[in-house]
Amino acid sequence: MGYTFAEIAFTDTVKKVQEAAGSRATYARVEAGGNRDFNGFTDAEAAFIAARDSFYMASVSETGWPYVQHRGGPAGFVKVLDERTLGFADYRGNRQYVSVGNLMTDDRVSVFFMDYGNRSRLKLLGRVSIIAPDDAETMEKLKLPGHAAPVERGFLITLEAFDWNCPQYITPRYTMPEIERTVAPLKQRIAELEAMLDKAPAT
Questions:
Q1: I want to staple 37 with a disulfide (CB 3.0 to 4.6 A). Which of 2, 5, 117, 179 is the partner?
Q2: Domain that holds residue 14
Q3: How far apart are CA 118 and CA 126, in angstroms?
Q4: Are both 162 and 73 inside the same structural domain?
Q5: Coil, strand, or helix at residue 156?
Q6: First to last CA, the chain
Q7: Is the dihedral of CA 134, 102, 67, 12 positive or negative?
Q8: 194 is a domain residue
Q9: How many whole angstroms separate alpha carbon 29 and alpha carbon 25?
Q10: pLDDT of 39-76, one tens digit each?
Q11: How far from the centroid of its chain's Cα atoms is residue 169's Cα?
């Protein structure tokens, strides 16, 4: 676990719960080790994010309610702009604007990137800047080529901390492109065998 993530996430109350559950000593050793993860993303995190086609983002409303939103797009729609900054274009959707409204009063978010097939999960904490569509230079970095939907704004997430979660209880799931790549050799082999049968002499 990244030390900075633990420093933010492990409030005094969380530590009390850990103490009662018997896990506090383990996490205290993580914190005492001083392995501060904050030089930012490494190549491993950047590559993982670039390969994702969706993520989950939690914000908090002005009344204190959490709100989790799913975001999806082609792989690479979330851009790793530098070792501390992620960005993506916000295309017009159902026009509820719950996340946008929440971020106007509290810029903090928690984000989960999931790779279900490989049972991997990267979670991060960050602060969001909302980019107006007339900021052409920034928006050009965030847009997806050929995407027809109107872009309403951009989001830049400045990283505060990240952590790789353990794979326990992540149920493997696969996208259609992943399934198609896996079964393609099987389909090819079936086609070859069928062709052989067609050419075989009748008995």
A1: 2
A2: 1-37
A3: 25
A4: yes
A5: strand
A6: 66
A7: positive
A8: no
A9: 6
A10: 699 999 999 999 999 999 999 999 999 999 999 999 99
A11: 17
> What is the DSSP annotation of 20-68?
HHT-HHHHHHHHHTT---TT---HHHHHHHHT-SEEEEEEE-TTS-EEE
Domain check: are 98 and 151 in the same one? yes
- State the pTM of this model: 0.86
Query: Residue 2: pLDDT band by 50, 70, 90 thresholds?
Result: low
Q: Which residues contact 114 (CB under 8 A, 6 or more apart)?
A: 52, 54, 55, 56, 120, 121, 170
The whole-angstrom distance between residue 162's C-alpha and the CA centroid of its chain comes to: 11
State the burial class of residue 37 (Cβ atoms within 10 Å of its Cβ: 0-12, 13-18, 19+).
buried
Helix or strand holding residue 9 (H, E): helix 3-9
- Indicate if 125 and 33 belong to the same structural domain: no
In this structure, the number of other CB atoms found within 10 A of the CB of residue 90 comes to: 20
Residue 81: DSSP 8-state: E
Position 131 pLDDT exceeds 90: yes
Q: Would you place residue 32 in the very low, low, confident or very high pLDDT band (cuts 50, 70, 90)? A: confident
The structural domain count of the chain equals 2
User: pLDDT (tens digit, 9 = 90+) per residue, 147-179?
Assistant: 777 889 999 999 999 999 889 999 999 989 899
Residue 162, pLDDT score? 93
